[in-house]
Amino acid sequence: xxxxxxxxxxxxxxxxxxxxxxxxxxxxxxxxxxxxxxxxxxxxxxxxxxxxxxxxxxxxxxxxxxxxxxxxxxxxxxxxxxxxxxxxxxxxxxxxxxxxxxxxxxxxxxxxxxxxxxxxxxxxxxxxxxxxxxxxxxxxxxxxxxxxxxxxxxxxxxxxxxxxxxxxxxxxxxxxxxxxxxxxxxxxxxxxxxxxxxxxxxxxxxxxxxxxxxxxxxxxxxxxxxxxxxxxxxxxxxxxxxxxxxxxxxxxxxxxxxxxxxxxxxxxxxxxxxxxxxxxxxxxxxxxxxxxxxxxxxxxxxxxxxxxxxxxxxxxxxxxxxxxxxxxxxxxxxxxxxxxxxxxxxxxxxxxxxxxxxxxxxxxxxxxxxxxxxxxxxxxxxxxxxxxxxxxxxxxxxxxxxxxxxxxxxxxxxxxxxxxxxxxxxxxxxxxxxxxxxxxxxxxxxxxxxxxxxxxxxxxxxxxxxxxxxxxxxxxxxxxxxxxxxxxxxxxxxxxxxxxxxxxxxxxxxxxxxxxxxxxxxxxxxxxxxxxxxxxxxxxxxxxxxxxxxxxxxxxxxxxxxxxxxxxxx
Length: 570
Description:
The chain is α/β, with parallel strands linked by helices. About 45% of the residues lie in helices and about 15% in strands. It has 26 helices and 14 strands. The chain has a 7-stranded mixed β-sheet with strand order 3-2-1-4-5-6-7. Strands 9-10-11-8-12 form a 5-stranded parallel β-sheet, with helices on both faces. The chain starts with 7 loop residues before the first strand and ends in a 5-residue tail after the last helix.
């Protein structure tokens, strides 16, 4: 009887045929992956990764269909619950694979080791992880950046740190072509979530360097202790016969403290003939300040990677054959701020349109291609608290901790702004002290579109809170008018009304909670709705409304609303 192979997951790739020599069907974690899992006709798949392997089965229980992982060891079968279809993420698969790998292992064998749970990737998948990615999009020559990288070879570390779409991988791929022509050996690793296991991280480093120095680190891998493996491998690296370069891409995927410590340990003890190049969406937790002072660090950031006006003109006109006027190229440079992914997305939009110059006027962060990129590659990669902060502060043209606290109704905005800066989340400082920031224009437009999509009634509240803050900070009063205009638009669509000047209103006398109540009053919320929204009692809500009425010198809530929405006198 011929056995038909079941679908196979290897690392983060899914093969419906069960054969890794065939084309990848789709990626684990993609919408296609979750649709496949949810189909009750699909009953099983096998999983193979660095941590081990198992067979997953789709089983019907009393309340629905669930996935379970099975593995046999020593004649005994072990079972772990994976979850419903929507719960079976890459992280969950790896977690369960790791747990099953330790089942049935005698305690004396459970010694930390780089090879303890290592299941080698097939050649087909190794080629993806340890090969320089091919460049699939048209590129413009960037000789000044290549010269910068060449000069940086004298440094211990070259760091490319910028958000998604700034061309880090493309630049390094181009440089690798130049290194090959110069016969300079280099090795490449595309890091992934599995490298958060320090044993697998070191295995990745060793495997990569073995592509240019076969046998390097083989003795180290034979050891049982991770500490011994690290030291033995670095000792072997000291004997490298000539200069070589190790390029680590997607270092932002190293999120575990253990893997980050391993990277720092490797850098600290790096042999002089081995140069490390790191590409990351965030600054890795390395002693960068110390390396700067020592002159051992080359940094390439978004300002360096940004496409200049001549490069944008060359890309669109000579390479993509999209003719624009000099004003059109300048406008695109201004709109994208040189963000390479934005320029390419604009080119895709303009390529087949009869009037590219006119269509360029409609290019913004809310068009589908740009919106989807920002949401999928940036926003949804962040913790929930950061996502909420980004959405709520997207209405602001300038960001400061005090203003953001007022708009978001909390007191940790400074820490969140620092997080955005450290993680290169399309935020630009407006002063040397890092007290004021702004968002990249396209990113801000995408966030605003997402805000209206996800919280359609929240935007007026945010503008009101911003207006009230500006009322208390006269030095910034000139920025208040934009929020007043948006409040007017939201309160009476299609009408030419505007809000009364807040300088004539006692809003500065209101407490933070009273301002929240006032914002809800302006939306016509009832006492019960206000209480439910703010998680307070209806009695407390009535007291807040009474206090607001007293400060406005009126008797009823409707009079407060009328005063806030009455036509301006100027």
